[in-house]
Amino acid sequence: MESSATLPLHVCHVKKTELVINRLHAFLHGIALLSLFYYRITSLADIIRNRDNTLLLPHVLILISELILSFIWLLSQAAKWKPVARKTYPERLPGDEKLPSIDVFICTADPNKEPCVKVMNTVISALALDYPPHKLHVYLSDDGGSVATFRAIKQAWKFSKLWVPFCKKYKVKIACPEAYFLTDDESGPDGKFQSNEFIVEKKEIETRYAEFKEIVAKIIADTSISVSKDHPPMIEVIDDANDDGIDSNQREIPLLVYVAREKRPSHPHHFKAGALNVLLRVSAMISNSPYILVLDCDMYCNDPSSARQAMCFHFDHELSPKLGFVQFPQKFYNINETDINDGQQRSVWSKWEGLDGIMGPILSGTCFYIKREALCGTQKFREDVDFIKLKKCFGSSNEFIKSISIYHKRNYQIEHKFRENKVEEELQLLASCSYDDDTKWGKEVGFRYISVVEDYFTGFNLHC
Q1: DSSP secondary structure, 210-241, as one string
Q2: Which domain of life is it from (predicted)?
């Protein structure tokens, strides 16, 4: 018998059948291409020999195009050369008291294009992750500064006080209420809960969820959902301590924070990368977790155990020093049954498995657990580094720079200090539109600003 301390937290095995098929296909395809080029080159030689100028240019253009396409095909074979599959063993992790804290970043921008109910489902599913609630912190970035989104997140918080305990009590595997109630399953996980108690509670939760959607719909109807491009920063911890005297920790609900960064028409906002970098700074002053989960607002947590699964890799003493992020697949539950365009992106994920077999996949923009240190790049700084140099890199906030060196610890006790003027002023500064100016943010620190596809360039830099 082996103790859990000596057993591996994860295993990786090569998908041999797919590997053989992929390499055999590449070999046959390569032979076909060589035959084609042999034909093109001999034909071109005959044309030159016969001095047939009318056929020379078309053959040269066709040869060039085929060379380009063949080169692209050759590059694509890297993603099929060594497909691997991984299996994790979350039950072998140390106890909850030894698990690190996690911050969850969710970005939304426009309630007209991203319906509030869908966004709140993502927020609620993140709150229901199977992880110690006092070590889980959820941040919603509202780039549009919408009053409707702010009011909706308060309603989501109230519903989560019912939903999260229900999920934990019955070990619900679909943490998103919208997706959960689309199923007809009247039993709990693995059929263990078929009692009247479970059915009654499920019906009650379903009723309350319907009421929640009605309230959000009323908010949308009664409130302007126009998007603001000119507003000051707003940071709010969502709780109801003032209503009934019971805070989130006593209710065993993770911390929920609403963030609307400052926007001005004359100042560049850098799209999603800018919003994520503001969350990176603001969260450092509040929870300062060493690991971050990034989710698109329409990409709910379909597996509540994903946080523990990610920790199986980050807790690997051999792998962790070289590990920047753990990428989970993107799956879509509302695809039309007659979809013929691969809306579920199954073909894309197969390539990610192939890239995992070489140096790992690229960052996909959502569904990944990343190290805060990987984004801040603090390993390259010595302990005796000049403070002025740090300010040029990370900006003018002394408190944020202090938080970088202790990212594994919680910087502030929210319940007692968040609303102090000093902390609020610091958060306002970190969420201001001009904080990035003349710093390394977006260039060497945080998510990259070079393009709207911040995930690609950020992942590329991490690989480098």
Answers
A1: HHHHHHHHHHHHHS--PPPSSB--EEEE---H
A2: Eukaryota
* pLDDT, tens only, 344-389: 666 777 788 888 888 888 888 899 999 999 998 766 666 667 778 8
Number of residues in the chain: 464
Q: Is 438 assigned to a binding site?
A: no
Separation CA 208–CA 181 (nearest Å): 12
Between CA 230 and CA 249 the distance in angstroms is 35
Cβ-contact 319, 313 below 8 angstroms = yes
Residue 236: CB partners within 8 Å, gap ≥ 6?
150, 257, 258
Please state, in angstroms and rounded to a whole number, the distance separating the CA atoms of residues 114 and 52: 60
Active site residue 339: no
User: Per the annotation, does 272 bind a ligand?
Assistant: yes
- Cβ atoms of 140 and 105 within 8 Å: the answer is no
107, containing H or E segment: strand 102-108
Whether residue 143 is annotated as binding a ligand: the answer is: yes
Buried b or exposed e, range 89-116, using 16+ CB within 10 angstroms: ebebbeeeeebebbbbbbbbbebeebbb
pLDDT of residue 145: 92
Chain centroid, CA 216 distance in Å? 25
Task: Retrieve residue 415's tokens.
Answer: 């319940």
